[in-house]
Write a structure and sequence with these properties.
Blueprint (H helix, E strand, L loop, with lengths): L4 E6 L3 H14 L3 E7 L12 E4 L4 H11 L4 E4 L6 H14 L3 E4 L11 E5 L2 H7 L6 E5 L15 E6 L10 E5 L6 H10 L4 E5 L8 H8 L3 E5 L9 E2 L2 H29 L1
Parallel strand pairs: 1-2, 1-4, 2-3, 4-5, 5-12, 6-11, 7-8, 7-10, 8-9, 10-11
Helix pairs in contact: 1-7, 2-3, 5-6
The structure holds NADP nicotinamide-adenine-dinucleotide phosphate.
Length: 267
Amino acid sequence: MITPLRLLILGGTGEAAALASALAERFGAALGLVSSLAGRTGTVPDVPGRVRIGGFGGADGLAAYLRGEMVHAVIDATHPFAARISDHAVRACAAAGVPRLTLVRPPWVRRDGDRWTEADTMGGAAARLPSLGRRAFLAVGRQELPAFARTAGVRFLVRLLAPAPLDLPESEVVIGRGPFGLEDEIRLLRRHSIDVVVAKAAGGEATYAKIAAARALSLPVLMVRRPLPPAGPAVTTIAAALDWTAAVMAARGAAHDRDRAHTAGNR
Ligand code: NAP
């Protein structure tokens, strides 16, 4: 009998958790599921299968993990801005000969009434910010805040997942974890007299309300573009990721049958 397909999900996103649940539901015991997290937030999602936490030690470390754990397939469901781990996944899977799929969120689309200014990098956004407003809502993740440390003349309202010391000249912190609602976001922006929103072009629904709130209040949004997506096959829906997994399973089953026929023929 063929052993379960060992599938590694590179996670840390709501989509990755939803994917793990959907995979377990569709494939059950035919799948050995491991979800990998960087371990930045200190929270562990309640997902089916095993959860491992912490970096692999670069692309070579990930390749060694794939070989050591005999992983059959990888789905990269990390955040669109988590470019380093995605690059490592590309290189490690190529080195270890493991099929890999990227599950990527569809990007947000500009709508009537949106006042977006786009920047290629967080540093570019920081340089541009004083020309757009004086009271900025910064919901870009703690790791990105150093880019704004020398931005003068702007007061920041920073949203974080958990309290952390900030090295920003004039700032106030609000703690929150998505999904966020439109009315709450409008209230927050009004209460703090925000006149510009800084955001990553993350896509997805959990953090879209701040973009819709900016549109409702006619505020400019300084939108940092996504890094280039990883090379290779990519899908935008969980259903498509399930189909890809089914195809990997079928290919493995066919290879298994060929090997057995070959062995029987040699007897
Ligand atoms: P990154 O810059 O691409 O990765 C930095 C390092 O963190 C990687 O080289 C790797 O360390 C480790 N790492 C990242 N994701 C990992 C995972 N899923 N499992 C094991 N190790 C991982 O990524 P990041 O921007 O720091 O994001 C870290 C995690 O938070 C990701 O899982 C991502 O999905 C999630 N996240 C990121 C953002 C964002 O805006 N960047 C937003 C929400 C959630 P080694 O080189 O040692 O293997």
